[in-house]
Amino acid sequence: MTVAESLDADQGQDRPRGGQRMVLVTGPSGAGRSTAINALEDMGFEAIDNLPLSMLSRLLDGPPLPRPLALGLDVRNRDFSTNALIETIDRLGQTPGLDPELLYLDSRSDVLERRYSETRRRHPMAPAESPDIGIAREIDLLVPIRARADIVIDTSDLTPHDLRAEVERMFAGSAGRHLSVTINSFSYKRGMPRGMDMVLDCRFLRNPYWDETLRTRDGRDPDVAAHIAEDPREAPFFAKVLDLTQMLLPAYRDEGKSHFAIGFGCTGGQHRSVAMTEKLALALAKDGWQVSIRHRELERRNASMPGGRPGADITRN
Known about the structure:
The chain is an alpha/beta fold. It has helices at residues 33-42, 56-60, 82-93, 109-119, 131-147, 160-171, 222-229, 234-254, 272-286, 296-304; strands at residues 4-6, 20-26, 46-49, 69-72, 98-106, 151-154, 180-187, 198-201, 259-266, 290-295. It has a six-stranded mixed sheet with strand order 1-6-5-2-4-3, with helices on both faces. It has a four-stranded parallel sheet with strand order 8-9-7-10. It folds into two domains: 4-175, Rossmann fold; 180-304, no CATH class.
């Protein structure tokens, strides 16, 4: 058996789509369902794990959802049963406007036992017994569901990274892997934001703070941005940053990274870092990247104003 098998040849990402896309993700506990659901969520699916089968009809009431769905189903579901899941699959397949697929994540029993031994977790089907008993029970229970699967991925010899790549290969289609980019401005006085992948210090650039006509404005103002751009070091600095970013983003995307955070810092987080954030975001958006902006200090200032709220008119895609 290859890593992935399907009931129809080449059924994965290139089969014709006919409506609201829905991927039902199931398989024995420990086979990698959470990893697969997280990968689908990073690809733009609306992911819901452990949704009771009886609530599925409510979820689908009304007009088509704006995003494809990824639903995690396993024995921990409140009303889970083999017959109920098979009946649900049949009903979904006959529903106009729906395009359901069943993804089954499988693994050898010895691998599942090793994974449970490493995590020291109790098996949901044998909470008071050894994990191997629960694993055997669950595999037997899921045999009919595995037979109905559109796609089976055997994760026995896969790392989480390998599994993510396989899910992306099967479900991303022509869109390929997705990488979202967040660009942040901040003040070094308040410390660097957490979770940054790359941080750049703008404090060497010409500071609009010392121009009284610009002091109360911020880096989104064209006059402030023009003042900073008059610094002869600004253009080569930005060119090098853009060149580096354009090299890194495709590499991180191909490696399976779903989000990349860039930080620009200056003294007050109001002028130079804001201007550079705006400029880089515009350039990357023109290149086709999904970019969002966060100006941390401007958000704080906005939130402190009457009627203000964190992030108002600041964070955007």
